[in-house]
Amino acid sequence: MENWRTSSHSGPDDGNNCVEIAHTPTHVAVRDTKARSKATLTFPVAAFLPFLGGVKGEPRG
Description:
The chain is an alpha+beta fold.
């Protein structure tokens, strides 16, 4: 993926806890800003929003 950007969920109060995301029409990838050369998490687009909800602690349903 070539279009990495800092996630809108990473803000100034997050200190060093920043993530970057990149997307294609079919997938979304997430990586640690401080470890760009390491592994990424890649999700089908339909699975990314439920993943994000889980990270936020939103109830499933």
